[in-house]
Design goal:
alpha/beta, nine-stranded mixed β-sheet, two-stranded antiparallel sheet, 13 strands, globular
């Protein structure tokens, strides 16, 4: 059944869409006036063939007219004006004695071609690094996102430029720049020892990040000179007042569990978040090769930590690495030991049970349920474990936690205080240097302390509200293979939306695959590398990395020639040259072994840069107007 509204639209000749461009129609050609006309009745127009009549009853026609006017008023459409002559009674026409000459109307003018419109410039701060940062693109008036141009306000969709994200920070050529936006896609710098990845391209990129006044960050240190290098960079950029050097001599404290348990926002004090933090921390000291590792130990450790933390929470005690360790070491080790008066008097776990009993009136129904499950695990399940797996679970925890039970690490990481927070890097533009280099504090201790800060900062950055804190931040990881965790791929997949620039420097990709538990670069390594948008390849000795770099740039069809020659039995000879079109690397792997390295005669290091979805303007020529996806750049350490 056709409704009144639908029928009104169908029968209304005056309804027009305001969002559709219409072609201009030529004005009707009026016949030239004639003299001495004869009064006669004009002939009736020829009746078109197959014309069918559709007449509505008067009441229905009136209802449709009323409905049509209402729709026109709601849509803001003004009906076409009635010509003045239409209201006058028809006058008799005085035609010429002879029929007038037939006048052919001129053809309609062609539709106007859309003008090229330059979008307005976004205001840019007066700064040498951002002077004239945008090249005005020429855009045609074509449909955008399936919408006709005439339906868009102003004719075109204006591009959105952010004064922070689109700020140019590092020039690669006269017409190619790295911006904050592109750096938020992640950066990988590889190179053999002495190739200049830290002293040349790494140094230039660090200065570029510090040149953004709104940008804070976290610097992880593996080498002893890393802290001094960043202090020097900060002074050169006038950012020394934004530095927070976090080391044993600074007097600063950062208790990661206290921060996670007391921080503002949703998820604060979430037990599973703490368990995931510890699980990731414990995984860095072991390498789960392939997919055949036994998950029993990981699940067992999570269960042990979950019940210990829950008991501390119910007793109202602070949650820290030291307090968790005291609970685990005081758990009953045999069935029925919790009824022993000696255990009840001396064990720290028994003291926590007494605290829970003292505040039982304050517990909610959910907390009573949690207490029931926690006591079942502590009093029944844990003592019933076989001694060997129970001892292994205890040693797994102790191997990670023991180093934090002694000073200065106990004072720094288990004090229940935080001298700084991750929010200071985005809100106050602070640059935190985790000054616990592995070469000075030992590989495991230095690695664990750096990864603790990294995990807490990563989690805080991903959950922040950009409306409250829009400033970008960076994560700097030189010798990144020592700080890599199983959560890094997830972080890199989502950190672009949080405006975090992740910079990883390593010698080759085999370093990463080894720490991810793969004998050769497999799915874990390739997935992580694939999520890093910018890749800077310096001189390389590792064949796997050379092959990866060539594959990353890609292949193209080329004509390769071949020569053949031979001798016949009768002393004759023949030779020939042929060619075939084959798919070959654009840049052969051997080329990465020939890149220039800095030395005593030259401070320059050569690198080949690849950026996802980017063709470099410096590579565009008349023969190749599209350009190349890679660019050879010389970086200086001076």
């Amino acid at each position: 059944m056709i409704s009144l509204a639908m029928l009104a639209v169908i029968l209304s000749p005056g309804l027009q869409s305001g969002s559709v461009a219409t072609q201009p129609q030529p004005a009707p050609v009026q016949p030239a006036p004639t003299s001495a006309p004869c009064v006669t009745t004009p002939p009736a127009p020829p009746k078109p063939k197959n014309q069918w009549k559709f007449t509505l009853p008067p009441k229905l026609q009136q209802a449709l007219d009323k409905q049509r006017k209402q729709l026109q008023n709601q849509a803001g459409i003004t009906p076409p004006p009635i010509p003045k002559d239409a209201a006058k009674p028809a006058q008799p026409v005085k035609p010429c004695p002879a029929p007038p000459a037939k006048v052919t109307p001129p053809p309609p003018p062609p539709a106007p071609s859309p003008a090229k419109v330059n979008p307005p410039k976004t205001p840019v701060d007066e700064d040498p690094l951002t002077e004239d940062p945008y090249k005005e693109p020429e855009t045609t008036g074509q449909a955008a996102f399936g919408l006709p141009v005439s339906s868009l306000k102003g004719g075109l969709l204006s591009p959105f430029r952010d004064t922070i994200l689109d700020r140019r920070v590092l020039g690669l050529s006269d017409s190619d720049w790295l911006t904050v936006r592109s750096l938020c896609e992640g950066t990988l710098i590889t190179g053999a020892p002495g190739s200049g990845k830290s002293s040349c391209s790494g140094q230039q990129l660090a200065l570029a990040l510090l040149s953004v006044p709104e940008m804070g960050g976290l610097v992880l240190t593996a080498k002893a000179e890393e802290t001094q290098n960043w202090i020097k960079y900060a002074k050169l950029c006038g950012r020394e007042s934004d530095l927070i050097v976090f080391n044993a001599e600074s007097g600063l404290c950062f208790d990661p569990l206290h921060y996670e348990w007391t921080r503002p926002g949703r998820g604060a004090g979430d037990l599973e978040g703490i368990i995931d933090f510890f699980s990731t921390l414990a995984s860095i000291s072991r390498k789960d090769v392939g997919h055949g590792h036994d998950p029993f130990w990981e699940r067992g450790n999570e269960q042990l930590m979950r019940n210990s933390i829950k008991l501390l929470d119910l007793a109202g005690d602070p949650v820290s690495i030291a307090t968790i360790d005291r609970v685990i070491k005081s758990l009953p080790t045999r069935p029925g030991e919790h009824e022993d008066p000696a255990w009840q008097k001396e064990a720290h776990c028994a003291q926590l049970i007494e605290k829970v009993r003292a505040r039982q009136e304050m517990l909610s129904a959910d907390q009573w349920s949690d207490l029931e499950f926690a006591t079942q695990y502590i009093f029944k399940k844990w003592p019933a474990f076989d001694e060997r797996p129970r001892s292994s679970l205890e040693m797994t925890w102790s191997g990670m936690a023991d180093r934090f039970l002694f000073n200065p690490f106990n004072r720094i990481f288990c004090s229940g205080k935080c001298s700084f927070t991750p929010e200071m890097t985005t809100r106050d533009r602070k640059i935190v240097i985790c000054d616990f280099p592995m070469l000075e504090f030992g590989q495991e201790t230095g690695r664990t302390t750096n990864v603790i800060c990294k995990l807490i900062f990563q989690r805080a950055w991903l959950r922040r509200d950009l409306a409250d804190s829009p400033n970008p931040a960076f994560l700097w990881q030189d010798e990144a293979q020592y700080f890599i965790t199983r959560r890094d791929n997830f972080f890199q997949q989502t950190c672009r939306g949080s405006r975090i620039a992740n910079v990883c420097l390593t010698q080759n990709i085999l370093n990463l695959s080894e720490e991810l538990g793969e004998a050769q670069p497999g799915s874990k390594t390739k997935s992580l590398l694939g999520n890093l948008g910018i890749k800077i390849f310096h001189q390389q000795n590792d064949t796997e990395t050379c092959q990866f770099a060539s594959d990353q740039i890609g292949r193209e069809y080329r004509y390769l020639d071949s020569f053949n020659a031979g001798f016949a039995d009768q002393g004759g000879s023949h030779s020939g040259i042929s060619g075939s079109r084959q798919l070959a690397h654009i840049v052969e792997p051997v080329e990465f072994t020939r890149l220039a390295k800095p030395d005593g005669d030259s401070p320059l290091a050569q690198a080949i840069i690849y950026q996802s979805g980017k063709t470099f303007n410096a590579t565009k020529t008349a023969q190749n107007p599209r350009g190349r996806s890679y660019l050879s750049v010389m970086f200086s350490r001076a």
